[in-house]
Amino acid sequence: MSYSTPPNKPSIPVEPFEISIPEKDITELKELIKLSRIPKETYENTHAEPRDGFGVSRDWLIKTKDEWLKFDWSAQETRLNAQPNFIAKVKNSDDIEYSVHFSALFSEKKDAIPIILSHGWPGCYLEFLPIFELVRKKYSPADLPFHLITPSLPGYLFSQQPAKDREFNVKDIAYLFNGLMEGLGFGDRYIAQGGDIGSSISYELAASFPACKAIHLNFRRSLISHPEVLKLQGKSEYTLQDQIAELQKFGYALEHATKPSTIGLVLGTNPLSLLTWIGEKYLGWSDQDLSTETILTFTSLYWFTDSYNSTIYTYRYNLGSKRGGPSAEDKYQDKPVGFSFFPNELAPSPPKWVEKVANVVWSREHKSGGHFAALEKPAELWQDVEEFVGQVWK
């Protein structure tokens, strides 16, 4: 497959990987969907609006359940396998080996620039699939100016889940991802990009590893309560009303952070429950209606890999029992930062806010777009990344 040959001989074990969901798993999923009941009508589920209201509507769930029963998984598998996929063995800070899945587009150019792109929740590496497809139309392997690496976070899809006998956080993810880049031969220098949790990972890579020379972000953890940002807003304090407004957006995150076992077990036992929980986010956090096909592809992968309950561990470091711990994002970032602002982001932080906490050398404010920029606005986001990289890579 073109784009599938690393430019250097990896110093870590790396094997090609093909997604192949067993037929029995597909059959079982459809049987569970068929047997799962739709709850009775209530005022809330008949007046629900995911962007502003009570969440997902009962009518949406009925319609999407029917579409899931007819969903052609084989067509999705073919599309996913059209991109080179790999499994690498990377050691963590305890010298324990982890299996890390990643997709990549490797260039044949000797001076191609390595970029690691990190996803968030409820996403996965597939968030970057539209960008991969755009890049493949624009460049051949011979003239591609970049090496693009998109790993699955530990616990997501085909990457090994975090250990069951110790805590695991963004710093641990960054350690593995830097090890992946080193193992692929990019240990001298690379650039990181990310949104959502991926922005925190990118920030950690830049703060902790000299090889990460610059980062591009399309999300920054909420800055509404930062003292310098309050001044920009003409405020002297972060009020109770501000806190309530924030919590209304992040009620789901409080559940992830404070009762991860409960919600993990609930959503891991019923596919319609999982679809409702994940679908709400794709419907409510995007600036445009993402296709039902997209939502079903992501949800199916979460279900087939039994991933949900091993993907929410980072939330307790923001809102749960581990909140208030040290974070790279709490420190000013000296390395060059590029920032793309999409106005309908879940927690919008305009560039002038981000400049207070990071060395923003490039930014752009878009007129539309939401939380899932790589899915919603792949051409715009990728243009931003290319321009930023062209400015900082010397």
**Which word captures the global form?**
globular
- Rg from alpha-carbon coordinates: 21 Å
CATH topology-level name:
Rossmann fold
Biggest beta-sheet profile: 9 strands, mixed
The parts where pLDDT drops under 50 for at least 5 residues are none
Level-2 CATH architecture: 3-Layer(aba) Sandwich
**Text of the CATH class:** Alpha Beta
Amino-to-carboxy terminus distance: 31 Å
Count of helical stretches: 16
Portion in helices: 40-55%
Kindly name the structural category: alpha/beta
DSSP summary, beta strand count: 9
Write the element-wise H/E pattern from the N-terminal end onward: EHHHHEEEHEHEHEHHHHHHEHEHH
Mean pLDDT: 93
Give the strand order of the largest sheet, numbering strands 1, 2, ... along the chain. Answer: 1-2-3-5-4-6-7-8-9
Give the total of domains.
1
Task: Give the name of the CATH superfamily.
Answer: Alpha/Beta hydrolase fold, catalytic domain
Strand content: 5-15%
State the assembly state of the protein chains.
single chain
Q: How would you describe the overall organization of this protein?
A:
With 394 residues, the protein is α/β, with parallel strands linked by helices. The chain has one domain (14-392): Alpha/Beta hydrolase fold, catalytic domain (Rossmann fold), CATH 3.40.50. It is built from 16 helices and nine strands. It has helices at residues 23-35, 43-46, 58-69, 73-81, 129-138, 170-183, 197-208, 227-232, 240-249, 251-258, 260-268, 271-285, 292-304, 351-354, 373-376, 378-392, and strands at 14-16, 85-91, 97-105, 113-118, 146-151, 190-194, 212-217, 333-341, 358-365. The chain has a nine-stranded mixed beta sheet, sandwiched between helices. It is globular, with a radius of gyration of 21 Å. It starts with 13 loop residues before the first strand and ends with a helix. The mean pLDDT is 93.
